[in-house]
Design a protein that fits this description.
heterodimer, A: alpha+beta, five-stranded antiparallel sheet, three-stranded antiparallel sheet, flat, B: alpha/beta, 7-stranded beta/alpha barrel, immunoglobulin/albumin-binding domain-like, 2 domains, nine-stranded mixed sheet, 49% helix, globular
């Protein structure tokens, strides 16, 4: 939003804009100070967004760039409010990156009531189960860990301890020191974040070609893309960013 | 011709991915976000066609891959949107005409006003007279001439890794994308652009039945394959089912993408951000901006990048054009050197894959189409050393490739699914997943409907596909036009749920349905059974 556009709003509307954008405002400031604070916050936000995105994403975002900071609008879309949940018993697991998954779940009201009323009920837990294959069976469990949850919880990001393996989650109820399955999610396969070791008999120059591909890792060691601010930081910029002398080295 | 490729130092594979989400609002007289399409038409798609025309006139051989998304091709053949594009051009011609008067006492700005008046007048003339409001016919012509290989992407550009629990949905996205392509171009695409280069192991199994030969992947998707790719990024690998994957070269990407150390940031190029919509007095610019009060980019930009300050110098088209040629020559020179180096270690000709968002060229980087044209001319000049090739050309020259399984990856920030799954947008998946389950439930309940019920179910399928566009979570994360993205997701979920409830109660309102069919009219051929298990 431009300064001029902000001046066209009432003081109350400006306060609402700051509220919607979670922009802290000193109580009782005059209109022009409030506008300066908003503009400053917008600019910081814009810079932060640019810095956080890699080049592909910055580029893609420009396709949609028509106006300036109009995302904090005063329009309402409450008439299209969606349900928070669907009152069913289920759990879903999505792989976000090699280290993190996102899970969401729901417990049907009737079932939740039954669980609550079970004599000896102590609480709910989210179990993250590592498996040795895509198929769930108790024989395939490699490891697991538990996270206590409440009935009011319905989603969570979870950091995974291992890569290149399989996981699922379970919602379990603890009753008298025992735990019982409430629902289990789909199984996901996590990914590796390293270049695998070379095979004998294959191209003996693969080390060099992978280096020329822009990867600086010691082969076999994990140097995850997600651990870096943006992918291009990992580029060995072969001819474009180095001068001839450096390249020939 | 294919055999000759093996005798070069290297091949360059330019892949331009042209995509915009389905945005069409007949319920409003004008609609701000429809300008995404109009700007891309004026600044990217028409200039690209002009580039092909210039090269054809000079008999310069071209081989470029272009991915045209089904949502984009639908909009480019939609009468209402194409009429609105004509209206948009007329509005800009009027503004540029007004600018001719406004800048009469300022010769430098006056020249800019003249330039835009000419550009928009030419766009309108050619759009009406040469392309007859359908530019896809010309893309098809260039495919038939062998200059372009047109590939497709998923129906609504869904980020597939976040839907991998739903095989029927993934197949529906791919099948609908391919059918849409076939209906427009009367051909089966050889390749597919996985939206956002989003790959998960196993996605290739969905591609094989449709005759797809290859897809594009991010660099780390290929390098982190199950077995080390022995040629790095410079040869494709084959998935175990024979589908090939070509990975993005990072150095050539950065050179063209980066505003800081890439070519588009050169001071002489046109500045993207400084726009007349923000420069002129409000009462003057009001008829050309949103609702007369909300300043928006008009596309008329008079200044060069200059430096980071606000003191910009006026744009000099001749200097920018010369710089684009210089950059193209430098870019190619670097690629030739890169190939020479790679060639020392490879037993085959290396291929450098350069996939880009098409809209980068022209829309953001105004001189981008000139750069591309100069690059293609330069490749021709150095054709004894290097050649343009599409991935399918490469596969004809080298049908045997290393077999391994690529890794989960995308071209998004940090390389995986973070852009489309974070605190700003993760709420959508509970709903979009539910929609798929409910769609499958509807198919089981209504396996073979006709008439009004079939129409209703087909519209439900459209709403499911539209809710899955990667653009909406992307916009929520990127932070531009967020309210619109939220409303779009919510409205597709709402429309579907309304249909679901209506079918459950057996109370379909014909008038409501007809209105929705007219508004969200994408994929008129869609058969709701596409979501059926074992379809």
């Amino acid at each position: 939003m431009t300064e001029e556009r902000l001046y066209s709003f009432s003081y109350e509307q400006l306060l609402e804009i700051s509220d919607r954008g979670s922009i802290p405002v000193t109580p009782g400031v005059d209109k022009s100070t409030l506008i300066s604070m908003l503009l400053e916050a917008f600019e910081e936000d814009r810079d932060e967004r640019e810095e956080l995105n890699n080049l592909a994403i910055q580029m893609e975002a420009r396709k949609f760039s028509i106006s300036q900071d109009e995302e904090i609008d005063l329009g309402q879309d409450d008439d299209l409010e969606l349900p928070l949940r669907y009152n069913e018993t289920s759990a879903t697991l999505l792989l976000r990156d090699p280290s993190w998954v996102f899970c969401f779940w729901d417990i049907e009201d009737k079932k939740a009531d039954e669980i609550r009323k079970t004599p000896g009920f102590q609480g709910l837990l989210l179990r993250v189960v590592e498996l040795n294959s895509r198929d769930y069976s108790s024989d395939n469990i490699l490891d697991y860990f538990d996270i206590p949850i409440k009935f009011s919880d319905y989603r969570r990001y979870v950091n995974l301890p291992s890569e290149d393996t399989w996981y699922c989650i379970e919602i379990r109820a603890i009753v008298e020191e025992q735990d019982y399955l409430v629902t289990r999610s789909n199984v996901i396969e996590t990914t590796r974040e390293y270049v695998t070791a070379p095979h004998e008999n294959l191209n003996s120059h693969s080390d060099e070609l992978i280096r020329l591909s822009g990867f600086t890792s010691e082969f076999g060691e994990a140097h995850g893309v997600s651990g870096y601010q943006e992918i291009p930081q990992r580029i060995i910029p072969i001819h474009d960013l180095l001068d001839e002398e450096q390249f020939n080295d | 011709m294919i055999e000759q490729l093996k005798n070069k130092k290297g091949m360059i594979s330019l892949v331009l991915h042209a995509h915009l989400p389905f945005v069409r609002h007949p319920e409003f007289e004008t609609f701000l976000e429809e300008a995404w399409l109009f700007e891309a038409l004026s600044e990217t798609y028409l200039p690209l066609l002009r580039m092909f025309e210039n090269l054809e006139k000079d008999s310069i051989p071209v081989r470029v891959t272009i991915s045209l998304s089904p949502t984009l091709t639908h909009m480019l053949t939609d009468e209402l949107l194409m009429q609105r594009y004509v209206d948009h051009l007329n509005m800009l011609i009027e503004l540029a005409g007004k600018e001719l008067d406004f800048t009469a006492s300022n010769p430098e700005e006056h020249k800019m006003a003249q330039m835009y008046h000419e550009i928009y007048s030419r766009n309108l003339r050619e759009f009406e007279e040469i392309y007859e409001r359908n530019i896809l016919k010309k893309f098809r012509y260039y495919q038939e001439q062998g200059a372009v290989e047109i590939i497709t992407t998923c129906a609504t550009h869904s980020f597939l890794p976040h839907y991998q629990n739903f095989p029927e949905m993934i197949r529906a996205q791919i099948l609908t994308g391919i059918e849409s392509h076939d209906r427009i171009f009367s051909s089966q695409p050889k390749g597919i652009w996985l939206p956002e280069c989003g790959y998960f192991p196993g996605v290739e199994e969905y591609l094989k039945p449709f005759g797809i030969e290859y897809f594009l992947s991010s660099a780390h998707g290929l390098l982190y394959s199950e077995d080390r790719p022995v040629n790095g990024l410079y040869a494709p690998v084959d998935c175990p089912n024979g589908i090939s994957t070509f990975a993005r070269d990072r150095a050539s990407s950065r050179a063209v993408w980066s505003a800081t150390d890439g070519y588009p940031g050169d001071p002489v190029y046109r500045d993207f951000y400084r726009d007349l919509g923000f420069d002129r007095p409000l009462d003057y610019i009001a008829p050309y901006i949103n609702c007369g009060v909300n300043r928006v980019n008009t596309g008329l930009k008079y200044y060069a990048i200059t430096d980071k300050s606000d003191n910009k110098v006026i744009y000099d088209p001749a200097a920018a054009s010369a710089k684009a040629k210089e950059h193209a020559a430098e870019f190619l020179d670097n690629r030739v050197k890169q190939c020479e180096t790679l060639g020392q270690y490879m037993d085959r000709t290396p291929i450098i894959n350069c996939p880009y968002d098409a809209e980068l060229f022209g829309h953001w980087w105004f001189e981008g189409p000139q750069f591309l044209e100069a690059l293609i001319r330069e490749v021709h000049r150095r054709s004894d050393e290097i050649a343009l090739a599409t991935p399918s050309d490469y596969l004809k020259a080298y049908p045997e490739n290393q077999v391994t399984k690529p890794a989960f990856s995308s071209w998004g920030d940090k390389g995986y699914g973070q852009v489309w799954l974070d605190g700003s947008n993760d709420w959508i998946y509970r709903h979009t997943h539910k929609l798929i389950e409910r769609m499958q439930e509807l198919i089981e309940r209504f396996p073979d409907e006709k008439g009004l019920k079939e129409r209703t179910l087909n519209q439900a399928a459209r709403e499911v596909l539209l809710s899955q566009a990667s653009d909406w979570p992307f916009i929520m994360k990127a932070g531009t036009m967020v309210p619109y993205a939220r409303k779009r997701i919510k409205s597709h979920i709402h429309n579907f749920n309304y249909i679901y409830d209506s079918l459950s109660r057996n109370t379909i309102k014909t008038e409501w349905l007809t209105k929705l069919e007219k508004r969200n009219n994408i994929f008129p051929f869609l058969d709701y059974r596409v979501f059926r298990k074992g379809y």
